[in-house]
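Lecture notes, unit on protein representations.

Consider one protein chain, 438 amino acids long.
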Amino acid sequence: MVVVAILAAGRGTRMKSNLPKVLHSLGGKSLVERVIQSVEPLQPERRMAIVGYQAQEVKTALQTIPDIEFVEQTVQLGTGHAIQQLLPHLEGYNGDLLILNGDVPLLRSETLKHFLQIHQENQNAATVMTAKLPNPKGYGRVFCDEKNVVQQIIEDKDCTPAQRENQRINAGVYCFRWQDLAKILPHLEANNAQKEYYLTDAVTQVTPVMAVDVEDYQEIGGINDRLQLSAAYDILQARIKEKWMKAGVTLIDSASITIDETVELEPDVIIEPQTHLRGNTVIKAGSRIGPGSLIENSLISENVTARYSVITDSTVKDGSQIGPYAHLRGNVEVGEKCRVGNFVELKNTKLGNGSKTAHLSYLGDTTTGNKVNIGAGTITANYDGKNKHRTIIGNNTKTGSNSVLVAPITLGNDVYVAAGSTITEDVPNSYSPSASSC
């Protein structure tokens, strides 16, 4: 039985931002969202976020996460003080408390599972997550016996030269037997220069206490400024890219590519240089994306190519070609074996199977049938200054170059629009209006 407490009350002054530190984004999710996500496989009895600075903003950002509880720390007086706020909320609780930091977003669920297992199997009063750093300068050192039972925790400035050779540091992640910790919390003292209450003081007052080394020390890196945020992003990207390349995805010049953790890719997808995949994007087998493309919250079906293009909130079906320099946005659906070519923009448009709009066109709020050919420079004039209107184009219809279709308007099947026409009235099936006829 475990309750998770996430420390998310700090401002993060070194971020130089009005946004609470834990709400800064890392690969499409906020820092604190990543921490919350990491504990889901543990199936905790309760998940509690301790909030303070701009508490309402943090609550609002996390309101869609089910079963998250908020505890306010109105004045931030250290980690011990933060956990003191849990006393009235956990009265009578008889399990373990896992304490995480909302600005440490790279901890893997597997690491936390192992940590909790060691704590419970050994019936520890407290367990401290530790890491062995190549350069531990500035960190407090944790000293253990041969069974990893903690003997001392000494701040870097208080270490002797010999003690500084110890590379094991405190990662700031703890698991306590709650009943033991609850007895100590009211008696913590702020006997330090910062006048704050620290959890490390509680660690020294319970027994037994065990240290558990994290295998990959990069997991315990905290985010205090933009440099560390950037470094964490690099680590996250390396994980994501390794995962997809092992799953059969080709990344050409992977250093120039970025992929959100929420993206899904199928085998035999090829991602070209300078391509960025964002949000809830799915790219299916055989598709080739890039170079120089941005795909966000979109479904790209099988055997699609998209070069030097931007696609957001849209669907592209099997075998279609997008770009170069095309822009699809706002609920576009491109059918099978279509072509959306050079400098074409589609907005809230459905393009039927086998249709083509090859050059220099804008289709907004438009529905086309199958095998429609949109000539170069064709525009749907969908906005009258107050409202947007829809254009409907039937099967096998063709528009000549530099045509304007003034919505609301419907063109039937097998219509041919002459080059340079401005169409303001509906056109029946199998009709060929000239530039002067409508």
